[in-house]
Please model this.
Amino acid sequence: MTASSDVDATDETELDDADADERAADPDATGRPAEPLLEVDSLTKSFGGIDALNGVTFDVTAGMLTGLIGPNGAGKSTTFNVISGVFPPDSGTVRFGGEDVTGLAPNETASRGLVRTFQMAREFRNMTVLENLMVAPKAQVGETAWRSVLPGARGAVSDQEEEVFERAWSMLEFFDIDHLALENAGNLSGGQRKLLELARALMLDPEMLLLDEPFAGVNPSLESKLLERIETLRDRGQTFLLVEHDMDLIMEHCERVIVMHQGRTLVTGTPEEVQSQEEVVEAYLGGNVA
Amino acid sequence: MSDDATAGGPVEARLPAWAADYWANDLVKIGATLAAVYAVYLVIGALLGYDLSGQLNSLRRLTFLIVLYSIAALVVNLHWGYSGLFNIGVVGFMATGVYTTTMLSRPLQGQNPTGTLPGLGLPFPVAVVGGVLAAAAVGYVAALPSLRLRDDYFAIVTLAFAEIIRITVKASELQEFTVFGVTLGTGGGRGIRTYPNPVDEFFAGPGQPVVEAVSALGVDGSLVAGWAFVLVLVVLLAGVYLLITRLAESPFGRVLKAIRDDEQATLGLAKDTASFKIRAFIVGCAVLGLLGIVWQGSQGYVSPSLFIPQLTFFIWIAVIVGGAGSNTGSIVGTILFVGVVYLGPDYLRRLVEEYVSLSGSVPTFPGAVGALAGGDPQGVLLYTLDQTSTLRVVLTGVFLVWLLRTNPDGLFGDRREIASSIDLEDRVERRRARGDADGQEGGGSE
Amino acid sequence: MITYIPAIAQPPHVLSSVVDRVQRRTRLGKHGWAVLGVAFGVVLLLDLVRRLLSGDLTVALLVGYLWNGLTYGLVIGLAGVGLSLTYDLLEFANFAHGDYITVSAFVGWGAAYLIAGFGRFDPGSLFFLGVGGTLYPGDVGVSVTTAPVAILGGLVVAAAAGAVVAVTLDRVVYRSMRGMDAISLLIASIGVAFVLRYLTIYVFTQQAFGLTVSAWTYGVALPGGTVNVSAPTLLLVASSLAAMAGVHLLLTRTKLGKAMRAMAANRSLARVTGIPSERVILATWLIGGALAGLAGFMIALLQGTITYQIGWTLLLLVFAGVIMGGIGSVYGAIVGGVLIGLITRVSLVWIPASFTEAMGFLIMILILLTRPQGLFGGETA
Ligand SMILES: Nc1ncnc2c1ncn2[C@@H]1O[C@H](COP(=O)(O)OP(=O)(O)OP(=O)(O)O)[C@@H](O)[C@H]1O
Ligand SMILES: [Mg+2]
Model:
């Protein structure tokens, strides 16, 4: 298998023409100065007295790979949860593509093209790996109950199933888990589950991906392959926000970095700018977590 | 009772290789189980000295119950096994279907035979559609707000709904009432006469010659209509089976499966999970409505006391025996449930009465215990034989608890039914074969 | 790395109730719902006043409803304590709880009959309440005023029977299933419920037994009529209050009670530290079963009859009370039960008697949808 054929495979967008149009209308494509795709403003969120978020503000520019870093418990995952709508913020706003999406349910943010993965992989454990991927594509004809049942309408469903299968298969091949296609996802190793989740998110062909430590437990050679893939997709206009603890990785691959500490955004800037900030060093080395 | 080596683990593991191959086919599984239960009942019938009519009637009743319970079990499997909706108000939706159809189809005031309740006088097919839609609508009302509740709360809500429906049809205020100048009613606690069974009507009218021909062969003529109705129900079951397996093996069913595994992650994939769940729930409720119409409705008379939780309980047992999540399992489970647990005790009683000479009767429990204390165990046996239909439920409960502890997945619960409208196993195989041919020189991905 | 389990991954608690969803859409806010509810209540109250003033409803009738509601509600509340505690502690809805009520009520009344008719009738007939027509209530003549010892004895035996039934079933069924998912336990409890219910039928048939002869009644004269306060209802109120006081003392004064409360307050911590110990579980079943027994005996006393369905018909209302009061809260269960009793009875002002129970269920559904943590619970902990 070759890298180019893989990319082609994910690039097939028969299923989500609407998405493709949206992307074409992206500011980047029209050549105007890049506007922020995701704008997060003064988010707060507390859980029974614990302030998990306490003023999170940042922008993510379209077509960029942005890193989100911070020590354990800084609130990175919570930020993802609030952005994607797992729970609404106590205050603050989230705008995506210029639209206010604060507090929208996860399926609504996802259908607007803002898709996230979870820190602890959430595979569908009683389904095969292949099914896991095939769930994801948007607006499948066969999701309408009667079309899947009525004799006349089923042809269209099966046809699309073939397409979805082809896409899923290419994805599996790229992620090197095609030999597990018919395995129950629950039987996969931790690293394989993370791969599966990333692959599943990519099946949605999202405009923006929020990745919560996607490489945890993934072997290094696959990791660099994934990064390569992410960069290719980025070059094609997809946007990434990446939570990662490996500083070298962040500094090497991200164009911008957001640093969080104790529920706040500390600084935002290029890797070089961020690295030189004293606050950041302090946040990591100073008197934070016990 | 039946020779099922099946009760206690994956069936395949216990079969010789040649049989396991056949067993792989779903229809074979169902057919083989059914044949085994039939054989046992024929033997019992022979032991009881049944003639041909007796045997045919015994099998008719067996099949009738298996088919009806199977339909219900398939719905419970769609709700629980596929959608994770813990519906323990099954009877409520059946009651909604049959009561609505009855009230819609009963003759208008003035045309109704004296002593029976009037209705809206709609043609029967329209009334059936009305009953099905009413059950679906009640399902919608019950589920719409409750979808996000956790399973046990959802269960309580469905049970409460079933009780509210039973209370409603039982209410004396609705026994007979008039709205917009039309008089109709539920019959209240007294119940209501339903509608004529079209199959019976056919054989009483144009089909009469068939009945006569069969009678001429020395077989009870009333079996013709009975078996014909069972065959109609079998067709209905086939339709429901097709409907539910197609739903399950489709992108729709795939999303349901995903929701069952992890609803939050499914939401994250831009699926409106509530909408999927509610559609699955409504489809099931509509089928339950139809089931009530053909089941309780076919008996000529319904009353609120038919729709007690015991029926729901039995349906659930059938599903748990087979293993939630598998349609084939639901049907095999139902066959075993009806054959062994539901009808078994009664036939056992008849066998005992046939072969053990017992005399006298003991009408009360203290009487039985008194006799036992006096050194006569026969009293307890006599009393118990009278109470088989009660003890059947007790045994079912014990059996259920035992099953949950030893075999919570049921017979087929661990079975993988891949959700796709195409054969994915086949596609994967072909892909792999192609990959092997292409990648002679490159390292395989194994 | 600190790994925590996000709220969402915890046992499928309410992901977010409908209110949350509507809130997301409409931004109506929690208070909006509260305001709506209160407004509805105010309208009903105003209508009540209007009816009283216009004479549609007499004071006597209303007070009668309230008194009936209170007595009925106390029974529901007592029965609810056990359900609530075990629901919280073992994390499953025990659908067999209603049938604990039934079984212990039968045993308690059998004992009461034995005491009342001792020496005069065959003990077998007495204990089995004259099933099959060997004995009638008029023969034995039990009532609170004519045979107080029998009634009190029966009450004690019913409580003991409830405790024994609850503990036995825990030993036989639930103990080996600890740690299984809530739904398996729930289904098992349905199995247990049917076993108990149909064993009751096996012994007592489906007959409805009259239990008592009429007892002393005091008529309270009020505008528009008299309200009858009967001896059984007075006994019921007195013994309910006594039982509640007992439970209160137990929970606040004894070490065991404190352990139970600590566990209710912080279940996840308790689980980590190795509690719920079997000892606490045992105590919970004992107390809950005993209170269910008391409730069973008294609901039969209140109605004057008993059937195999007596507990089952009560069960959904008990659930309603428990959910209203907040699962895990002893006092909540009692208050919730009393509220359910009052609501179902006072709703007679507006709706026909056939639907009063349905009213209770409807209220429960509304609570589940809007405040699944109960009326008095804080945020779901
Ligand atoms: N659902 C929740 N309930 C209660 N507290 C929570 C919840 N989610 C997060 N928290 C708390 O909020 C704080 C921020 O947690 P969060 O998971 O967002 O940090 P993080 O930056 O992702 O850390 P890590 O690098 O370890 O993943 C922590 O103190 C955590 O315990
Ligand atoms: Mg995190």
Notes: Chain B is about 65% helix and 0% strand. The longest strand of chain B covers residues 177-179. Chain B has one domain: 10-445. Confidence is low (pLDDT under 50) at residues 1-9, 441-446 of chain B.
